[in-house]
Design brief:
The structure holds three protein chains of three kinds. By secondary structure, chain A is an alpha/beta fold. Helix content of chain A is 26%, strand content 30%. Chain A is built from seven helices and 17 strands. In chain A, the strands form four sheets. A nine-stranded mixed sheet of chain A has the order 11-10-9-12-8-1-6-7-13, sandwiched between helices. Chain A is globular. In chain B, α2 (37-51) packs across α3 and α5 runs parallel beside α8 (288-300). Chain B has eight helices and 15 strands. Classes of the chains: A alpha/beta, B alpha/beta, C alpha+beta.
């Protein structure tokens, strides 16, 4: 009854790497891709569980374009064994509901259902830095039909089929006991992700990643992609908050620095300007029938 | 209408009505004193089936942010997270040649708050979570009348497989952070003295009659030095005091999201390339253990950052 | 779970700069030609290949044809062919173009380039040829067996500031290799250990270094043309400060510029970065930058000791190539072509050794033989005394150099000696001239348009270091550090450091201490070279840490 530890990861642009292009706009092409930070904490949580279950099978899964293989290889370089990628053009534009559904379908296809004989635990990041919704872990748990604990800082196993999770709540935390199988989403406040090892990187370089399309896992098109998603992004407006460049205090010790700060504050002049970068356009309202729902 | 679940919650229904609910449905159950995602999901879904609401709203708290998507998956309706604006509007579908109206327009900041997206749901109920601190609590009208309805859900024993071993709560809600005129906030760089100097500066300001409070960035919560309720940032609280003093805070984009609406931002950091300096008006490059004692002395002798003391 | 994994390879190359990549490429080609299958593994400490690469650069292209005979020359991402090449005697307000080239400084037929981009290109080529390249790993230990090199080990990660293992500890990997090639670049931290262990610098001159600070700018159309190359002498350097400025016009209205100054300067408060800022305010330089914008900043040291400072480059199972070997030609400060050439020669040596199954020192001596018969030797020998002459100052140096030209490099004496750079620094008391900060009083307020303070420049290097690790700057004797470095020398590290790693802090009581901001470190290693009394050792930080140069 070996345990299977499954980590879900997403590849995102490194937020701090987003450099300004020469035209003053964000140059996304230069932003490096990384495994979403929270997901990295999920990966580490899995490697910590391995200490208590040395014979566990470690697998990492993702959904996205082929370039996400890089994230999967990074996970293997950290210590994971197998990697699966759900990649299909038809998944493009999926909202969180459709994403949760697709990932749950892939996991069920791999044999991880609520009635599995073998215990498993699904680890995920609390949320992604490019979406920030925190939905997918809950949705995967619901779709598979297993319990969950989200916003978890640390997860420990007692060597049996239960885990104890420390869940962060407003003003404190909860300790919860969960039976496996279950889904745990990790906050980036637990044990920081380890660095890759060279031996892991060598293993990752030679790894065969299993890639599924939606047909492979028996996922229909009706509930995925833009058309299958129950929600849509109707409009995006740029927000520009402009703070003028900082005025730094000058001086060679704390007395002089604080004097300088107080003088700068008294001078004032720095104020926040905020505006919507794009003007709202009036759209002609066509003469379509109203639909109430 | 509002749904409230827990132990001895019936007494709270009138308060909810006075704050604007027309109907409060309550589930009274001793086993539900502590929030649990599985039974709560089940109760909400049962009620949604019975009442067929167009919209279901949750607070974007640690419970709401997991409960809403779990419900949204069960009702096949999807969810919009962490909204800062909710409006009723309409959607013109050119493809279907119809106008969806009324429809919930959920607005949420994305890409580190550089963009504001409007998200629409097409399956009822349209589920959204609302970010803490961005919506005002409706004015209380004492004596306001409304309906109170008990609700008896079918509870499945399987939904109680997860056991809460213990719950530890610190100082709780901290409404003060939303009202403070000045917030002193400590980051990873100030953990050496467990935010001792941060708290001292806030206390010194309070003694001068300033409505000041102290807060922190995420790593401080991570290290267990203080509780989540004090955390400012995208996943914590959004604050907008007149003056925000960021001490030892590097300025991760998520933190900036929680404080960038502040009037004047003062950054103190010994790392000159900390990105907080790109998001502040005034700054000092230096070690907080040198700078703060000096600042505290100034405050004790009457300096209040230009704020008027409350008499 | 502290079991250390071991991997084995035929050839391990430490460092993914031009010399390491050339070794890899030529080896892979040779193996392919001979029909032998050998594993070649190349490790680099930068987060990606090229991220720790910085050079002027004006490059002599011929050697690329030798390295990549099957590649169309135009495919190599050089920038622009040199179209104008001037040496300028600079003062604050004037610029006099010398009517001739200083011998060995002509750049005719050369190309301007970003060496980082060229390395990225070479890495792609190497991988196509089957070389395994692993960036993002720091190697901090040479493995020995029976006193012979048998490979190296990557650094353990997941340690706290004191070196204790944390929960996310990840043991380093042992790489056992039949031959290890040290291609770490200037002042390589393992090469330094290797040279010490085997006394490879015995009978050689002490290696001396320069520090180069460089900025990449984007300027308005017309300020400078691609391929325009200027070298400046004079302002703002004193006659006892050896060095000068460079300005290279690149495609797309970019310009690479900076200054390079010998670390044998005397003034403990001299600051190469700040000197560069002052240099930019000269009429000549500021005109080129007018209306432009800073894109990137970086710094590196260059080994300048030349011919007589090149250590023995081979021991049993190991070779040293490129900057680690000190292969830079003066006075043109060109090393890329020599690095590549040395890589090619090392590859020939390694291929021969593996085919004979003899990787002993005796077998690897072939590298020296190849070197002696190559252009490298000829090029270095001709200018063997050039740099040493200038340790005596500009005027005596020029006289010396003139004599050297007549005598074919020998000068007055057969071989001019050097002493290590840290010994050149005077104490604040002993310095008889105005210290740097007084010399340029009023010029050190940087306007953040044309001139930048170090911290702003450092921000433009993309530098990053994991917080969770042992600080990679070691004070060898903290008890004497205050009394010697701070009290007698006035804490020179705050000035010689190119990237604001060292901050002199004075508390209210007037007590002084040095605070280390290791996270700013550009990996230039000046502190390892210049700290009085060799008080500082630069240790390699976690893999993937350091600057993230894009086009340097």
């Amino acid at each position: 009854m070996a345990l299977t530890i499954i980590s879900l990861v997403k590849q995102v642009p490194l937020p701090s790497e987003m450099r300004m292009g020469e035209d003053g706009l964000m140059d996304r092409t230069k932003a490096k891709s990384i495994i979403n930070i929270d997901c990295q904490f999920g990966l580490e949580a899995g490697l910590q569980l391995l200490k208590q279950h040395p014979d566990a099978r470690l697998i990492v899964c993702s959904m996205g374009p082929g370039s996400f293989e890089a994230a999967l290889r990074s996970a293997v370089a950290m210590g994971y064994d197998e990697a699966y990628l759900l990649s299909d053009r038809k998944l493009g534009g999926s909202d969180t509901y459709a994403t949760g559904l697709a990932i749950a379908t892939m996991l069920k296809h791999l044999g991880f259902t609520k009635d599995s004989k073998e215990p498993f635990i699904i680890l995920a990041g609390r949320q992604t830095s490019d979406g920030d919704t925190a939905h997918v872990p809950s949705q995967v748990a619901e779709k598979i039909g297993i319990p969950q604990a989200t916003f978890v800082e640390s997860v420990k196993s007692d060597g049996t089929n239960n885990v104890v999770a420390k869940r962060i709540i407003e003003g404190g935390y909860q300790l919860m006991n969960l039976p496996m199988p279950c889904v745990i989403s990790l906050t980036p406040t637990g044990i920081p992700p380890r660095k890759q090892s060279l031996s892991g990187a060598i293993k990752a370089r030679n790894l065969q990643i299993t890639t599924f399309g939606i047909d492979d896992i028996g996922l229909g098109t009706e509930k995925i992609g833009i058309s299958g998603s129950p929600t849509i992004v109707a409009k995006v407006v740029n927000m520009v908050s402009e703070r003028p460049p900082i005025t730094l205090a000058e001086g060679h010790n704390e007395v002089a620095l604080v004097d300088s700060l107080i003088a700068n504050l008294a001078k004032g002049g720095n104020v926040l300007e905020k505006k919507e970068a794009v003007e709202k356009k009036e759209v002609d309202r066509p003469d379509f029938p109203n639909k109430d729902f | 209408m509002t749904l409230i679940i827990g132990k001895k919650v019936e007494s709270l229904t009138q308060t909810l009505i006075e704050h604007g609910s027309d109907e409060v449905i309550f589930v009274e159950n001793d086993r539900l004193e502590e929030y649990l995602v599985l039974p709560f999901t089940s109760i909400f879904t049962q009620l949604i089936k019975e009442r067929n609401p167009e919209i279901a709203l949750f607070a974007a708290t640690t419970s709401g942010r997991e409960l809403a998507p779990r419900i949204g998956m069960r009702t096949s309706s999807g969810v919009t997270a962490d909204c800062t604006g909710l409006e009723i509007g309409e959607y013109i579908s050119k493809k279907e040649q119809v106008i969806y109206t009324p429809i919930l327009e959920s607005r949420r900041p994305t890409y580190g708050e550089s963009k504001l997206a409007t998200i629409l749901g097409f399956v009822c109920p349209q589920v959204s979570t609302a970010r803490a601190g961005t919506f005002e609590v409706p004015e209380r009208v004492v004596g306001r009348k409304g309906i109170t309805t008990p609700f008896k859900p079918n509870l499945d024993e399987k939904d109680f497989v997860v056991e809460v071993i213990k719950t530890v709560r610190g100082e709780g809600g901290l409404q003060n952070l939303f009202d403070a005129d000045l917030i002193v906030s400590g980051g990873r760089g100030t953990t050496t003295d467990s935010l001792g100097l941060i708290k001292q500066l806030a206390e010194a300001l309070k003694s001068q009659g300033i409505n000041a409070e102290w807060a922190c960035s995420r790593p401080v919560v991570d290290e267990g030095i203080t509780e989540y309720a004090r955390q400012v940032g995208q996943t914590g609280k959004t604050v907008r005091p007149k003056i925000y003093i960021a001490v030892g805070i590097s300025g991760a984009i998520q933190h900036i999201a929680g404080m960038k609406e502040s009037g004047t931002v003062i950054a103190i950091n010994q790392n000159p390339k900390a990105s907080i300096f790109n998001n502040a008006d005034f700054g000092i490059i230096g070690n907080y253990q040198d700078i703060l004692p000096e600042l505290i002395e100034r405050v004790k002798s009457g300096y209040t950052f230009g704020l008027e003391a409350k008499k | 779970m502290n079991n250390v994994d071991t991997v084995s390879t035929d050839v391990l190359i430490i460092g993914g700069g031009p010399s390491g990549l050339a070794t890899a490429i030529h080896l892979a080609d040779t193996f392919a030609k001979n029909g032998t299958a050998h594993r070649i593994m190349l490790i680099d400490k930068g987060s990606s290949i090229g991220s720790h690469i910085l050079s002027g650069a004006v490059i002599k292209p011929e050697v690329f044809k030798e390295l990549l005979p099957d590649v169309e020359f135009s495919e190599i991402p050089f920038n622009a062919k040199v179209v104008k090449d001037r040496t300028i005697l600079l003062s604050e307000k004037s610029a006099i173009t010398l009517p001739f080239h200083i011998p060995y400084m002509s750049n005719a037929g050369c190309y301007t380039a970003s060496l980082g981009q060229i390395c990225r290109y070479l890495a792609v080529k190497a991988q196509e040829k089957g070389v395994e390249i692993y960036p993002g790993f720091a190697v901090d230990e040479i493995l020995y067996k029976d006193g012979k090199v048998i490979g190296a080990k990557t650094k353990d990660t997941g340690l706290d500031h004191h070196g204790n293992q944390l929960e996310n500890f990840q043991a380093g990997t042992r790489i056992e290799a039949r031959i290890t090639v040290f291609a770490e670049g200037t002042r390589g931290s393992l090469t330094k250990m290797l040279i010490q262990k085997f006394d490879l610098a015995k009978g050689k001159n002490e290696q001396i270094y320069s520090l180069g600070c460089k900025e990449l700018w984007s300027v308005p159309e017309g300020n400078i043309k691609p391929g325009e190359v200027y070298h400046t002498m004079g302002y703002p350097l004193d006659s006892d400060e050896f060095g000068g400025g460079f300005i290279y016009g690149l495609n797309d209205n970019r310009v690479a510029l900076g200054i390079v100054v010998g670390l044998d300067y005397k003034d403990p408060s001299f600051d190469v970065h700040d000197a560069m800022q002052i240099w930019k305010t000269s009429k000549f330089v500021s005109r080129i930058l007018k209306g432009g914008k800073l894109v990137e900043y970086g710094a590196k040291t260059l080994p300048e000791g030349g011919y007589y400072a090149v250590p023995k480059l081979f021991v049993d199972n190991a070779l040293i190539v490129g900057d680690s070997a000190g292969l830079i030609a003066m006075p043109s400060l060109k090393g890329t072509h020599l690095a590549i050439k040395s890589g090619i020669l090392a590859a020939k040596t390694v291929a021969r050794a593996l085919s004979r199954d003899d990787t002993s020192e005796e077998s690897l001596k072939f590298y020296e033989t190849l070197m002696q018969n190559s252009t490298i030797d000829a090029e270095l020998f001709a200018v063997r005394n050039f740099r040493q002459a200038f340790t005596k100052g500009l005027i005596i140096g020029s006289l010396h150099f003139a004599t050297q030209l007549i005598t074919g490099g020998a000068g007055f004496f057969g071989r001019l000696k050097t002493h290590p750079d840290y010994l050149s620094t005077f104490t604040t008391k002993a310095l008889k001239k105005k210290p740097f900060k007084e010399r340029f009083k009023g010029k050190l307020d940087f306007d953040k348009v044309l001139t930048f303070d170090k911290s702003t420049d450092v921000y433009h290097s993309g530098v990053f270091h994991d917080e969770q690790q042992v600080v990679h700057i070691k004070f060898n004797d903290s008890s004497t550090y205050k009394t010697v470095n701070i009290d007698q020398y006035g804490a020179p590290e705050q000035f010689y450091c190119s990237s604001e790693v060292y901050e002199l802090h004075t508390n209210k009581a007037g007590e002084k201490e040095i605070r280390v901001h290791a996270e700013n470190c550009m990996h230039c290693k000046t502190c390892d070279i210049k700290a009085p009394g060799q008080a500082i050792t630069w240790v390699i930080p976690n893999g993937g840490n350091g600057p993230d140069f894009q086009n340097m």
